Amino acid sequence: MTKEQAGEAVAAMKKASELERAFSTYWDMLAADLPAPTSEHRFHAVRRFRFDYAWIPQKVAVELEGGTFSGGRHVRGIGFETDCIKYNLATADGWRVFRFTTKMLERDPTACIGMIRDVLAAFDALDVEIRSR
Asked: Tens of pLDDT along 33-65?
């Protein structure tokens, strides 16, 4: 890890929202056997778009949508439109983006984490199959 990457990781940890800290805690509890995600991964070469969490080799990402019931940025005009652009660019580049709201994570963290586990497991199975050929 470069000094720049380490600095970005520390900055991301300091800025982490309560929702992001909750996701990290659930990931550590429910998926400790899987690789930890990279936080605040910048995935686009031109736009400054970042994923909240990403498993870069598998192109799997998580976006946490806070403020959905309080009129937060993600549900207001320009914020919603910018998110649509972001997710479309990610999909066009082959990313699988999972979006979770605060309520989704509170109601059933096992299901949220389970979706990601299943996709990562499928990649692992494919990797094993390819290496065994």
From this structure: 999 999 999 988 888 899 999 999 999 999 998
Range of the domain at 52: 17-131
- Domain-embedded: residue 105: yes
Which tokens go with 108? 């059933």
* Overall average pLDDT of the 62-71 stretch: 69
State the Cα–Cα distance between residues 50 and 64, nearest whole angstrom: 12
The rounded distance, in Å, linking the Cα atoms of 45 and 63 is 19
pTM of the complete model: 0.74
Tally of structural domains, the chain: 1
